[in-house]
Every structure is written in structure tokens, then in C-alpha cells.
Amino acid sequence: MVSSKIGLKEAMAIGIGGMVGGGIFAVLGLAADLAKGGTPISFLIAGLIAFITSYSYVKLSLTYPDRGGTVKFINKGFGVGVFSGSMNNLLWVSYIIMLALYASAFGSYAPNLISITKNPLVDAHIFSTAIIVLAAGINYYSIAVVGKIESYAVVIKLIILLAFVLIGLYGLVGNPHVNQLSPENWESSFKLVAAGMVIFVAYEGFELIANAAPDIKNPKSNIPKAYYYSIIFVIILYVVIASVTVGSLPFSKIASAQDYVLAEAAKPMLGHIGFTIITIAALISTFSAINASLYGGSRVNYEIAQDDELPHAFTYKFWNQPIGLLVTTIITLIVVNTLKLESISTAGSVGFLLIFAIVNLVGFLLAHRTTSNRWIPLVGCVACVAALLVLIRQQYSTNKMDVYIAFGIILFCFAMEAIYKATKKTKLSK
Fold it and tell me: What domains can be seen in the chain, in order of their start residue?
């Protein structure tokens, strides 16, 4: 019999694939616009918060291995109630926001290869909508196909990104814009942190390792390595990619090509061929991220419903898949066609920073059960909350609507859970 257990390489691939999805292609321009020459530092700051948070995930994954991952951790820490249900609903909504972010990135890059209406904005919405519908169709058709797409996509996008890094580092020699990386071109410390938090969504994918924890071989050894090695690898990758991009293009060009800046950064090295190759890599990466996140989002929705934090109707099936897949798809289509990229990124970062703060708090509260050093989760919780406050202050000063949208989503999740619990309680009393 072939073992269904996965080894360290496969577990790391889940973490790396979850992080290096569409995030770097979608948010690099946002970070560079805010941090300027300090963009690599912003990615480093965001990565360090993710790394500290991974300690709580390691300990909780070892103590409570469950395919529900984050959902189960929050329920273990706070019990099944309105608060835990609201946070788990926020996790599901955050998956939807990530889906919208990836689809928006796909829509930004695709018109550079194919124009449908000659209007880039209209084309972006057409491509964003089409790729979500296509990924939903694949998810309904066969989960096995989703797995195969992911296994190939992870390899392809890593090869292209690593090639970009190697060629880019060589291309920095003698590039007149490389001095943009010097400290005098960095923004203030506050803005460096804020930029890191705007693009924090590029790191959230490591939490997918928690869902695979029950299937990992030699968990005591491999689970910590899977988390730590994958995050360290992605931090280095992102910092170098950010350095190559900022050192290759003038700030004016980074601003004008914000939505597809990584492809633009390949032009000084490889000309239009490089631009095309990175554009294709972006399309493959964002498509694979949409594909995997649709599956992950519907599974989170299913787990929440099983724990009675959403109506049991979400455990029903439609075309042999959880009905949550259909609901997730419809809401994603609405979000991607109504919100701007920065609004989506801000909402996603706020959601995951809050969720990671709560998971760190759970790690602190359950330290005696998980045999943890309780101070590390506490530091992680404080870091996430502080980063969240910096992000909110920065975005409120530049675009209040982004903050209102993020808070509106959080309040919606709490209201939805409170109404569901109250309604259920009334039915039970009758």
C-alpha cells in the first residue's frame, strides 16, 4: 500500500506555494510606491512577523493536528462561540479577499499579452472574472486536477522567479538606478513598517501547512522545519526580488507600472522577451493561487459549518463539492469587480494580521498544553497588533475608504455570527 503521508519537501512546497502565489505579483508595486528604496526592508519586516507567528502555528499544529488548521486552533483557545465563530468567518472572508487580490493581479497582467476591448480597465475586469469562473469550474470538475495544476505551477513559477533573481542581480551591476536602494532614498521608519503591512498578504500562505499537519511524516521533526524553512526561503526570495525591482527601474516607472511592476522590471535585463516571460509567470502563479484558494476557502467554510459556526447548509454538496465553493466564487466575483487593488490588499492584510494576532494569543493561553515558551506567542501577538495599528493609521491618512471597508468586513463577520447564534438559540428554545 502506498503511504498517504507527506514528507518535509512536500510540506515545504505547501507553505512556499501558499506564499509565493499571486501575492508578490500583486502587491510589489504597492510596497514600492509607499517605501521607495526601503521596499526590501518592508518585505523583511513583514516576513519577521510571519516568522514569529509561525512558532505558535508549530506548537499548535503538533498538539492539535487537524485539517481544520486555524479554525480548530481558534476554537481550542476560545471554545465554540460568537467570538471564535466570528474570527473563523473572518478567515473565510479573508480567503475570499485573497482570491480577489489574485484575480485582480491576473487581470492587471493579462491585458499586456491580449487586448479584448482596447480598454485596459475593462479588459482587467473581463480577465479577472473569467479566471475565477474557470478555476471554479476546475474545482467542481475534479480536485485531482487542482492538485496536478498546483504541483506543476509551483515548480514553473519558482524556476522563473529564481531565474529573474539571478539575472536581475547580475543586471544591477552598472545600473544607474541601483543607488535608489541606498538609505537616503528610504521613506520614514513608520512608512517602511506600513508598506510591509500593506503587502503582508504575500506571507499569509504559510498557515496552509496547519491543514496538512495530520498527514506529515515524523511530525515532531518535519512540522517545525516545514514552517521555518519555507518562511525563511520566501523572506530571502521576496527581499531579493524587491531589491532587483527597485534597483532596476526609476521610481516614476515603478509608479506608472504599479500593477505589473515585476514584469516591467525584467525589461532592462531581457527586453520585451523578459517582460513577456514574467507576465506569463504572473498569469500561471495567480491562476494556481486562485485554484488552490478556491479549494481552501470552500474547505474552511465547510469546517466552520461543521463546528456549528455557520448554518449546516454549508456542509451540503452541489455537483459533489461543498456548496461553500459556489458561495465563495460568487462573493469573490463581486469583490474583484467592485474594489480597487489597494483596498483589497489592505482588507486582506487587516484580516490576516488580526487572525494571526488571535492565533498568537491562543498560543500564549495554551502554552502549558503545547509546552511552549509563552513569551514568544505574546511577542507575536503584540507585533501583529502593533503592525495592524500602523497599517490602519497609514491607510486612514491616505485613503479612509480602505479602512472603512476593512472594519466593515470585520463587523459584518461578527454580526453574521451573532445573528446566526441568536436565531439558532431562539429555534432551540421553541
Answer: 8-423 (1.20.1740.10)
Provide the whole-model pTM: 0.88
What single DSSP character describes residue 176?
Answer: T
259-268 average pLDDT score:
83
Higher pLDDT, 310 or 279: 279
- C-alpha 409/C-alpha 220 separation (Å) is 37
- Residue 207 CA: distances (Å) to CA of 17, 105, 142, 204, 268: 11, 22, 24, 6, 36
Strands (E), 293-341: 317-318, 321-322
Q: Which residues of 393-411 are buried (b: 16+ CB within 10 A; e: fewer)?
A: ebbeeeeeebbebbeebbe
Q: What is the pLDDT averaged over residues 140-157?
A: 74
The answer to whether 116 and 126 are in contact (CB under 8 A) is yes
**Diameter of the chain measured on Cα atoms:** 77
Measured distance CA(55)–CA(35) in Å, rounded:
28
Residues 6+ apart with CB under 8 A from 174: none
Q: Report the chain's mean pLDDT, rounded to a whole number.
A: 87
- For residue 62, the one-letter residue type is L
CA dihedral 348, 350, 351, 357 (to 10 degrees): 140
Question: Cα(324)–Cα(259) distance, rounded to whole angstroms?
Answer: 30
* CB atoms closer than 10 angstroms to residue 141: 13
> Is the predicted pLDDT of residue 193 greater than 60, yes or no?
yes
